[in-house]
């Protein structure tokens, strides 16, 4: 869900990177949803040429996706098609995380890969030829070096083919919609409604195998032809799948030099999510449990089809041990120690066991981290008594009367309603009033609604991130004006700005916890 301050934060990022004109078009799409070119021109009061150029910039940098909405007539009298544009909020806020992505690639791969990725992040989309030309101009190595770095990034799924330029999105028919509602009502499926943005992104995305396909021409074969079956992302076990896709790849682009590539934000967020889960485990368990947990993540990573996976695929104890001993630190761990670590990880249930198989419960880990983050906010802002009350209500999961809250938290009964009202006024608690008995005695019942609270806390975080980005921009302007001032004053200004930027990074980690994970 995109909150109001989330929109302000996203628009501020676009303004800083591309200027006011492009930001105006982006804000129009964020606030009003998908629009045609003519509708954007009317809403922004810009010229058609200005809107077109702004959209081209936003599409180039993966911040907007064009799509065709196929609207079939009510009486089956043909279809009405119109090209619309939708702002991709998730991709926009990823722009702040580019330094994190580059650091990750530098550590996991090498400097050459990081430099190649930096070009993609700066320009949004590039062909392989453009990557070669950029590397030559920067003297970062020849074609072989660039292609080797490219293949490493592709094998790690840090880059991907660009989506379709204008995918066709078809609205479900009345019969399909009615069937879906009947199934959901009867309890046959528990479906989370997809947003339009998610539907557009899914429709534009290439098939999973084609998404990371890079067919390279190798040395001539015995019959004088060239073997095109070599692919950086297709293993021998996937040979038949590759052969089936070869014609599809050639139809889309006969030359790999003209295929557009971009950074794969999903993979970076998945890695950051895994890192956050490992840190959460590290805070509660010993090093052995952390190594076992990390091995489970590594073994099941390729099976994750979406970022917000709730549970990993199940693994046997033998498979987990096999993955553990692949690392240097894991070779000191015995089979029995792995079993003991899995028992540790099952309480709290970070790992679920069933039929002698074990799977990572991502949903539980993230929910626990979110609860702790909110509790820390309440503690810092309202004090320890408020923290104990909030924690009680959060863990209970149901309505509690004021006196029961006071008794359970050992807070004075006169102070309890005052503190609870503060939390309710700031949207951290839900209040329900009841009148009981002949005398209609009023009772106040309190509860934590975690779904609405999550949205509220996320909006507060976006608000803080927006204010911080504004302050950092101000400090940068001040540094430029004080270029001729004494060295001590410039150093103090620099320290202040670095502290603000560090706070931004930490705040962004919290935003990812509630929005991306």
TrEMBL record:
Q: Which residues form the DNA-directed RNA polymerase III subunit RPC3 winged-helix domain?
A: 374-441
UniProt keyword annotation of NAD present:
no
User: Chief localization class?
Assistant: nucleus
**Which biological process terms from the Gene Ontology are attached to this UniProt entry?**
DNA-templated transcription
Q: Which residues form the RNA polymerase III Rpc82 C -terminal domain?
A: 149-367
Localization annotation = Nucleus
> RNA polymerase III subunit RPC82-related helix-turn-helix domain: which residues?
9-67
Q: What is this protein called?
A: DNA-directed RNA polymerase III subunit RPC3
- Give the source species: Gossypium hirsutum
Instruction: List the lineage, top down.
Output: Eukaryota, Viridiplantae, Streptophyta, Embryophyta, Tracheophyta
């Amino acid at each position: 869900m995109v909150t109001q301050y989330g929109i302000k934060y996203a628009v501020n990022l676009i303004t800083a990177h591309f200027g006011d004109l492009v930001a105006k078009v982006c804000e129009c799409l964020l606030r009003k949803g998908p629009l045609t070119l003519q509708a954007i021109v009317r809403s922004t009061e810009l010229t058609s040429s200005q809107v077109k150029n702004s959209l081209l910039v936003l599409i180039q940098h993966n911040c907007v996706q064009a799509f065709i909405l196929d609207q079939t007539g009510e009486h089956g009298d043909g279809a009405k098609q119109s090209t619309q544009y939708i702002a991709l909020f998730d991709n926009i806020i990823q722009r702040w995380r580019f330094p994190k992505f580059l650091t990750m690639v530098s550590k996991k791969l090498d400097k050459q890969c990081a430099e190649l990725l930096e070009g993609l992040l700066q320009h949004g989309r590039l062909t392989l030829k453009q990557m070669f030309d950029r590397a030559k101009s920067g003297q970062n190595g020849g074609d072989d070096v660039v292609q080797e770095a490219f293949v490493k990034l592709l094998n790690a799924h840090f880059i991907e083919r660009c989506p379709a330029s204008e995918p066709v999105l078809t609205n479900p028919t009345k019969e399909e919609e009615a069937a879906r509602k009947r199934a959901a009502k009867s309890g046959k499926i528990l479906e989370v409604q997809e947003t339009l943005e998610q539907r557009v992104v899914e429709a534009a995305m290439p098939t999973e195998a084609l998404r990371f396909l890079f067919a390279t021409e190798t040395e001539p074969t015995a019959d004088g032809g060239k073997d095109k079956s070599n692919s950086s992302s297709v293993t021998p076990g996937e040979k038949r799948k590759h052969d089936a896709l070869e014609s599809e790849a050639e139809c889309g682009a006969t030359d790999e030099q003209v295929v557009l590539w971009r950074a794969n934000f999903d993979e970076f967020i998945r890695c950051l999510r895994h890192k956050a889960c490992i840190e959460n485990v590290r805070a509660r368990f010993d090093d052995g449990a952390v190594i076992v947990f990390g091995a489970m993540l590594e073994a099941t990573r390729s099976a994750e089809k979406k970022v917000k996976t709730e549970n990993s695929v199940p693994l046997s104890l033998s498979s987990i041990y096999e993955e553990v001993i692949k690392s240097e630190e894991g070779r000191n761990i015995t089979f029995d120690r792995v079993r003991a670590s899995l028992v540790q990880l099952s309480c709290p249930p970070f790992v679920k066991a069933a039929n002698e198989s074990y799977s990572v419960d991502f949903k539980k880990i993230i929910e626990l981290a979110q609860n702790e983050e909110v509790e820390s906010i309440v503690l810092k802002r309202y004090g320890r008594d408020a923290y104990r009350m909030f924690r009680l209500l959060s863990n209970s999961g149901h309505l509690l009367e004021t006196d029961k809250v006071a008794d359970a938290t050992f807070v004075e009964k006169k102070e309890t309603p005052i503190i609870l009202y503060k939390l309710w006024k700031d949207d951290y608690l839900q209040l329900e009033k009841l009148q009981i008995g002949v005398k209609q005695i009023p009772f106040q019942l309190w509860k934590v609604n975690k779904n609405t609270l999550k949205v509220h806390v996320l909006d507060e975080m976006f608000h803080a991130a927006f204010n911080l980005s504004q302050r950092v921009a101000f400090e940068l302007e001040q540094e430029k004006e004080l270029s001729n001032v004494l060295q001590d004053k410039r150093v103090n200004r620099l320290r202040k700005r670095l502290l603000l930027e560090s706070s931004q990074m930490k705040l962004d980690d919290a935003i990812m916890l509630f929005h991306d994970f």
